[in-house]
Design a protein that fits this description.
The protein is mainly beta. It has 2 helices and 24 strands. The longest helix is centred in the first third of the chain and has 8 residues. The protein binds 4-deoxy-L-threo-hex-5-ulosuronic acid and zinc ion. The site of zinc ion has 5 residues, from loops. 4-deoxy-L-threo-hex-5-ulosuronic acid (D54) binds next to strand 14 and strand 15.
Length: 285
């Protein structure tokens, strides 16, 4: 649905695990996969009813793009009652929020707190546009806007080459970080050469939903993303720059046919990254 000439949204309802288990491929994809986020000159949002997380893509061309409200929030401005994190997966760009300017390089992110009103996104070079991946959740407090560079993130090295899951998790929001958020916990995961499995062994966390954006994957390659309750798994075949929605009851793990990176983001009842329920491989069905 169009909210303005450059802004549009779609809604995704919350699905329970019994209904999801009965779905075929197309229905699973319609509910849990977001196929097209990044379109030049457009802001495209998906309003999810899991924790009311909004997932979107915003690609400014030669002209800047304004952050405009979408119908499902019922508010006069996008951030009236929400917070937002924008991660740049494209060329260099900038964000101006109520007069404060942030230069946003590739893989940098910007936190924007509740109540900011006039927010615009721009690309330094319209022929190598910035691609802002947007995550937004309802917020109960207003925290300061901040630029978060990848080298300021907390790095967690996990996995081994033998199990093809050697990877680095960059946590942008963590207890010692300067940035404060109400609900959002966001980070980026990259792989050692030859490693292709993310989040395996896997986990669930019913108090927080999660969204993944797979990117830096060759156009012909795919990620097989695992979802479903641990006792009832399904998969989604995901292409470059597509996102998935993971309900609290679902595992979220993937294996690539080539190398890739991904951005993970959570919203829900707490911001404790370590509050997860590990799933034993022997319990997966
Ligand atoms: O709850 C945390 C998230 O699922 C991700 O941080 C997992 C991840 O990046 C990985 O293991 O590769
Ligand atoms: Zn998780």
């Amino acid at each position: 649905m169009n909210d303005s000439p450059t802004t549009s949204h779609q809604s995704r309802w919350a699905i329970d695990p019994v209904a999801a288990a009965r779905m075929g491929t197309d229905e699973l994809r319609q509910n849990f996969l977001i196929e097209k986020l990044f379109v030049l000159g457009e802001a495209r949002f998906t309003y999810s009813h899991y924790d009311r997380m909004i997932v979107g893509g915003l690609v400014p061309g030669s002209e800047k793009l304004q952050l405009e409200p979408i119908r499902p929030t019922g508010t006069g401005s996008f951030l009236e009652r929400r917070e937002l994190i924008a991660v740049n997966i494209g060329g260099a760009g900038s964000i101006v929020a109520d007069g404060e300017r942030f230069e946003v390089g590739t893989r940098d992110m910007v936190y924007l707190g509740r109540g900011l009103n006039d927010v615009s996104f721009a690309s330094d070079d319209g022929s190598a546009p910035a691609k802002f991946y947007i995550l937004s959740a309802p917020a109960h407090a207003s925290y300061p806007a901040m630029l978060l560079k990848i080298d300021q993130a907390k790095r967690l090295d996990l996995g081994t080459p033998e199990t093809c899951n050697k990877r680095s998790i960059f946590q942008f929001i963590h207890p010692e970080a300067k940035v404060r958020t109400c609900q959002l916990v966001v980070g980026l995961t990259t792989f050692a050469p030859g490693s292709v499995w993310n989040t395996m062994p896997c986990h669930i966390h019913d108090r927080r939903m999660e969204a993944y954006l797979y990117f830096d994957l060759p156009e012909t390659a795919r990620v097989f993303h695992m979802m479903g309750e641990p006792s009832e798994t399904r998969h989604l075949v995901v292409a470059n720059e597509q996102a998935i929605l993971s309900p609290g009851w679902s595992i979220h793990s993937g294996v690539g046919t080539a190398s890739y990176a991904f951005i993970w983001a959570m919203a829900g009842d707490n911001v404790d990254y370590t509050d997860i329920d590990a799933v034993a491989l022997a319990d997966l069905r």
